């Protein structure tokens, strides 16, 4: 019978609606989307008691079809459950595989994972590994100090006197614009041969060291040549270290002059355009060169600071921020008559990547106006440093002031806040080219144990914003052996391509004295470092005995992970450290916060918790039980943890001593057996040292078979545990084919394939041809269906992955399958484990038809129920599919099956993309719970600023009074304006909007960003449930019920009547967070627990503070200034590396 069309305000077919059951509800126009009669716009869900709803559905006077009653839909649900269970029992083979394991009980042993013993052993192995690197570090640091002490300074040293391998020489020879090509290099650069070394992932030379010198440092300066001269002797120590420990990777000496000497030699991996690498800005150097810092940066934004000077200040602050690590705390403020923070941070915050990014963006918004007020700036800074109610470094305290100059010394402020103890160092920076008297700036720095620097041009910024580290290093040098403590860094990306590493650092001190009886030198020479690849540490952890969902992790004092299966940074920008917090690597909860705190405090512990975990494909959330065990790694700042599910307490270890049986089982791995026994994928594991890896599993299997023809599973070059378990599982799964699959007709039940995957690394697909469409990972431990099946009881459905932005499934060309899997649970002598997962692959089209039949009122398979014109019938999912929507949705909210043929190509999509109205109703009725989290490891390319939306450069505009004032013409403001005019004449784009930055600059480099992830999982509702989605007269009835022993939700609903009743769409896909994730301004108010390094060297009574920077000040004539500026602009540009810096010059002894 044809069902009449329905419109807004019209009565529905089915239950009579003449007398509305809702008080006050009568015929009315269809309202706007989800707009109730009054109150805020929101969905209005009228939940009915079952008896009232049933009475409405069966109202007298109803004719034709009515919405199915609750007991009818429960009957359909039971039929669906029985059908799924029957197919899985017959074809899945879970029970049969369980019996096969028991029948082969003599071929394996059940071993136990003892968490406490395991984690203590791994911690001890890691400690031993790192201790060997510590001994090498100490030999290097001692040798460096002795070599430098014995070195005689040479004032007349020349470039041709020094022989060394310049790591950037090859690249510079290929670049006609390089420094050496311009000047004509006089350096005696060695030409070396290199050999490929897989340990370094690079070509290396073990007989020499390599030298890298930053682009902005002149290689021919006396300081650099002397540095190259004495560090050459380190080469033999590097070589001897490697002889004693062949596992050593990069050994590096980072000099305070900027020179890097590393071993073994390898060509420098320079970027395409600009090489900005400077060892003094690397995370490991910063951490080793000084103790943690509390820093307040104050920036003068008075009216005289304009144009080029203001731009120099903004760049200087950003470069200064790059000298800070996660152990440091910082805030930035601007000042004129008043001081105010440049960002939303009102107190010191941790100098992590995200906070520094907030500062850098905020600094760009500074505007010059008003008059200079040093007092306001310094009072703000001291107040910040005296705030003891916040988390901070509590070590070195300093104020960095950037200004163009001024006359006020603010002595009263220093007397009030800093004298006589002078616990806060003051560093002053005179920025821009001006004629102000710099004596007050020098006085501020010298009377407060700081240093005075000048930044006249862009080329001086990088050098002068990092040399303050030399001053902070003085107490360390004076502390002597007490400060010679090895520190281990956070994780970061190696600049030479080694991947993720941690570095052991040890400061190297200048032990020379000016003369007999004189004070000893207090300069730090540099930092010695030795890298340890994370992969080498991972090799010490158990891999496959912990099961698919067990793992080892480690964190440092900041709570950042050193080891974790979810540590997968996508960015290749080595300038940014890899800082993933443990609570961001996993889904945060109170139990994990407690575990994290205990680990940071260096305690041991064990705790079983119920927690949420994200699936490997990041589409699902599972509630699971996990056992956490942790211990500290002695002699380091790290703590090690072990996570085990209860079912991974035990594992199987094959015992295949019978070589005849080994050969028999091995034959089932040969492709010649696939046609009868099913296709076999083997996990790409490191079974033997000589096994060639391949991303193609067919090729990998071929390599494996060829190797096994040469060696036996008991060979010493092979991992016997992995090989024996692989061969055992090959035989076990073949018996499943023989006992169950081979004699079954899969087509009878519309199955595309049956499969089994095991902990031993076998995935067997039957029949063989089904392997052509198999897209799951051949490593079971990396397959989402495998890991989810272990964590869930019953049958886990996995529809094909579809993105709403991609084309729908093309059913006509490809047969689409739905995976259904379940874990095989063994109980052997009271020990329970889950060594395998079995399942079937359903034919989507055939099972969609079967779904309609099972959710119908058929009494006979071939005869759908007919309803006469005068009889009363309930709608079903087969006959009334034009009016009734019936779907199966999985626990993540993804469509699995539908009675609507046009929705078959949408299977696998988030249901809100299919029916937003109904999905929102399910969410609001607690069938689903939403979990939001943030991915901090995504790499994003910055959006280049277009000229259309860019702002012109800030230009200072003088008044008429200024022009009439003779004094103004010799002021800094006049000079700044003159610079702008000259630049505008020479470079016509100066007054235009900023163009996009050149490739290779920091602004265009790929950097980390934050993505917001949203997943849904089943809520608390387990019972059958009826509800009405009300939207005026356009309401929809729906029924939802969980299917027992599955991850499916069965939903029956009226099809939507009106377009006006559309709901807001729930989002599931990953979205970019423009504000870098959760609001940083809110997060810093609730800082996570952390601890700084155990040592702090910020004071020494014998420190000599007389070396505090010098500058020149003279009132230049306008003619001289114009001549100099024209010479600089029209002639050869001055090289910033030719500048002589007091700190660098003081190294000559």
From TrEMBL:
Keywords: Calcium, Calcium channel, Calcium transport, Disulfide bond, Glycoprotein, Ion channel, Ion transport, Membrane, Metal-binding, Signal, Transmembrane, Transmembrane helix, Transport, Voltage-gated channel. Residues 1-27 are annotated as: Disordered. Gene3D superfamilies: PAS domain, von Willebrand factor, type A domain. SUPFAM superfamilies: vWA-like. It comes from the Eukaryota. Its main location: membrane. It is a single-pass type I membrane protein. GO terms for molecular function: metal ion binding; voltage-gated calcium channel activity. It is found in: Membrane. CDD domains: vWA_VGCC_like (cd01463). GO terms for cellular component: voltage-gated calcium channel complex. Residues 294-472 form the VWFA domain. PANTHER family: VOLTAGE-DEPENDENT CALCIUM CHANNEL SUBUNIT ALPHA-2/DELTA-RELATED, VOLTAGE-DEPENDENT CALCIUM CHANNEL SUBUNIT ALPHA-2_DELTA-2. Belongs to the calcium channel subunit alpha-2/delta family. This is Calcium voltage-gated channel auxiliary subunit alpha2delta 2. It comes from Sciurus vulgaris.
């Amino acid at each position: 019978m044809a069902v009449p069309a329905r419109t807004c305000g019209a009565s529905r077919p089915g239950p009579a609606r003449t007398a509305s059951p809702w008080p006050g509800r009568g015929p009315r126009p269809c309202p706007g989307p989800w707009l109730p009669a009054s109150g805020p716009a929101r969905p209005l869900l009228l939940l009915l008691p079952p008896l009232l709803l049933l009475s409405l559905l069966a109202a007298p006077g109803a004719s034709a079809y009515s919405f199915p009653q609750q007991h009818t839909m429960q009957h359909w649900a039971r039929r669906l459950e029985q059908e799924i269970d029957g197919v899985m029992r017959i074809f899945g083979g879970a029970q049969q595989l369980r019996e096969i394991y028991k029948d082969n009980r003599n071929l394996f042993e059940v071993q136990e994972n003892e968490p406490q013993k395991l984690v203590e052993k791994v911690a001890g192995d890691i400690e031993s590994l790192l201790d060997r690197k510590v001994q090498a570090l100490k030999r290097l640091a001692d040798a460096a100090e002795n070599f430098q002490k014995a070195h005689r300074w040479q004032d007349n040293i020349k470039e041709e006197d020094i022989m060394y391998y310049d790591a950037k020489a090859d690249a510079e020879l290929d670049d006609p614009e390089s420094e050496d090509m311009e000047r004509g290099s006089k350096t005696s650069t060695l030409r070396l041969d290199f050999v490929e070394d897989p340990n370094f992932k690079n070509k290396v030379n073990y007989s020499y060291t390599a030298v890298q010198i930053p682009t902005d440092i002149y290689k021919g300066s006396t300081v650099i040549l002397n540095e190259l001269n004495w560090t050459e002797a380190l080469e033999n120590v590097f070589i001897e270290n490697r002889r004693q420990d062949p596992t050593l990777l990069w050994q590096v000496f980072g000099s305070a002059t900027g020179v890097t000497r590393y071993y073994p030699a390898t060509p420098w991996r320079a970027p395409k355009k600009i090489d900005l690498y400077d060892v003094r800005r690397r995370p490991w150097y910063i951490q080793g060169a000084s103790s943690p810092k509390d820093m307040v940066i104050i920036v003068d934004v008075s009216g005289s600071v304009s144009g080029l000077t203001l731009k120099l200040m903004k760049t200087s602050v950003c470069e200064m921020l790059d000298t800070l690590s996660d152990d440091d705390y910082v805030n930035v403020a601007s000042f004129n008559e008043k001081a105010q923070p440049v960002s939303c941070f009102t107190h010191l915050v941790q100098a992590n990547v995200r906070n520094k990014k907030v500062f850098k963006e905020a600094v760009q918004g500074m505007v010059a106006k008003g008059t200079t007020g040093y007092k306001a700036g310094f009072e703000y800074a001291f107040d910040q440093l005296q705030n003891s109610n916040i988390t901070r470094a509590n070590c070195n305290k300093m104020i960095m002031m950037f200004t163009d100059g001024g006359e006020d010394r603010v002595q009263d402020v220093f007397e009030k806040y800093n004298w006589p103890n002078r616990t806060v160092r003051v560093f002053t920076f005179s920025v821009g080219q001006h004629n102000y008297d710099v004596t007050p700036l020098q006085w501020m720095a010298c009377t407060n144990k700081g240093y005075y620097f000048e930044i006249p041009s862009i080329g001086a910024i990088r050098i002068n914003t990092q040399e303050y580290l030399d001053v902070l290093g003085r107490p360390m040098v004076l502390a002597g052996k007490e400060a010679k403590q090895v520190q281990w860094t956070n994780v970061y990306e190696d600049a030479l391509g080694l991947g993720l590493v941690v570095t052991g650092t040890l400061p190297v001190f200048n032990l020379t004295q000016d003369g007999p009886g004189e004070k000893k030198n207090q300069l730090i020479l540099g930092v010695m470092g030795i890298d340890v690849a994370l992969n080498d540490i991972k090799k010490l952890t158990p891999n496959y005995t912990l099961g698919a969902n067990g793992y080892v992790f480690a964190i440092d004092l900041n709570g950042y992970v050193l080891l974790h299966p979810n540590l997968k940074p996508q960015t290749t920008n080595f300038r940014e450290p890899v800082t993933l917090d443990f609570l961001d690597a996993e889904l945060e909860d109170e139990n994990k916060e407690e575990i994290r705190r205990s680990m940071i405090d260096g305690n041991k512990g064990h705790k079983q918790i119920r927690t949420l975990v994200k699936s490997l494909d990041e589409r699902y959330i599972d509630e699971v039980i996990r056992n956490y065990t942790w211990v500290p790694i002695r002699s380091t700042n790290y703590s090690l943890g072990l996570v085990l599910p209860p079912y991974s307490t035990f594992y199987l270890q094959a015992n295949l001593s019978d070589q005849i049986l080994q050969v028999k089982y091995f034959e089932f791995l040969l492709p010649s057996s696939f046609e009868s026994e099913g296709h076999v994928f083997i996990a790409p594991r490191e079974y033997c040292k000589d096994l060639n890896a391949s991303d193609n599993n067919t090729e990998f299997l071929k390599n494996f078979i060829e190797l096994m023809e040469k060696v036996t599973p008991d060979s010493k070059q092979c991992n016997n545990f992995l090989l024996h378990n692989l061969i055992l599982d090959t035989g076990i799964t073949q018996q499943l084919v023989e006992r169950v699959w081979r004699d079954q007709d899969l087509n009878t039940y519309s199955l595309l394939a049956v499969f089994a995957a095991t902990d031993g690394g076998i995935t067997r697909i039957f029949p063989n041809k089904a392997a052509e469409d198999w897209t799951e990972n051949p490593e079971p431990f990396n397959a989402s269906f495998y890991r989810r099946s272990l964590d869930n009881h019953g049958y886990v459905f996995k529809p094909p992955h579809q993105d709403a932005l991609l084309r729908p499934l093309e059913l006509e060309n490809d047969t689409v399958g739905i995976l259904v899997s379940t874990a095989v649970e063994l109980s052997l002598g009271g020990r329970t484990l889950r060594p395998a997962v079995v399942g079937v692959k359903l034919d989507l089209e055939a099972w969609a038809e079967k779904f309609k039949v099972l959710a119908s009122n058929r009494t006979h398979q071939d005869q759908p129920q007919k309803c006469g014109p005068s009889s009363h019938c309930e709608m079903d999912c087969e006959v009334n599919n034009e009016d009734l929507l019936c779907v199966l949705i999985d626990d993540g909210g993804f469509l699995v099956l539908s009675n609507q043929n046009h929705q078959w190509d949408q299977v696998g999509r988030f249901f809100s993309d299919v029916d937003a109205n109904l999905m929102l109703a399910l969410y609001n009725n607690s069938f689903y719970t939403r979990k939001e989290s943030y991915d901090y490891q995504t790499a994003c390319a910055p959006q280049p600023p277009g000229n259309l939306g860019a702002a012109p450069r800030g230009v200072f505009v003088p008044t008429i009074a200024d022009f009439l004032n003779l004094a103004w013409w010799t002021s800094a403001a006049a000079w700044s304006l003159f610079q702008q005019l000259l630049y505008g004449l020479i470079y016509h784009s100066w007054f235009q909007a900023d163009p996009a930055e050149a490739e290779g600059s920091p602004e265009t480099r790929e950097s980390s960003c934050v993505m917001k992830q949203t997943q849904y999982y089943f809520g608390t509702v387990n019972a059958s449930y009826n509800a009405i989605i009300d939207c005026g007269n356009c309401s929809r009835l729906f029924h939802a019920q969980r299917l027992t022993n599955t991850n499916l939700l069965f939903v029956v609903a009226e099809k939507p009547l009106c377009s006006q009743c559309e709901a807001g769409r729930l989002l599931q896909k990953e979205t970019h967070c423009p504000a870098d994730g959760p609001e940083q301004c809110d997060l810093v108010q609730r800082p996570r627990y952390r601890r700084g390094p155990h040592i702090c060297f910020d004071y020494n009574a014998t420190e000599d503070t007389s070396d505090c920077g010098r500058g020149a000040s003279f009132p230049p004539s306008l003619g001289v200034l114009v001549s100099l500026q024209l010479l600089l602009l029209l002639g050869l540009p001055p090289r910033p590396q030719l500048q002589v810096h007091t700190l660098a010059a003081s190294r000559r002894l």
